[in-house]
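hey can u check if this looks right to u? its 71 residues, i copy pasted from the old doc so theres a chance i mangled smth
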Amino acid sequence: MARLGRERLQGAVEVDEAYDEAYVGGAEKGVCGREPAEKCLVAVAAELEGHGAGRIRLRHVPDASGASLAG
């Protein structure tokens, strides 16, 4: 559920594929680590607010490359 017309994240924003990603799809036999066969990679971008995170945005990305995580 997303609010239509929501504002872009502002200020310092962090996107870090090593810590802020999730594979959605459940356990797969014979597959481990970053080699999912049937899972979707979801990246997270978070506004930095003091010592924590503020608003976030989630997006399905094709891979964990810098090109997929930028922009």
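The longest helix spans residues 66-69.
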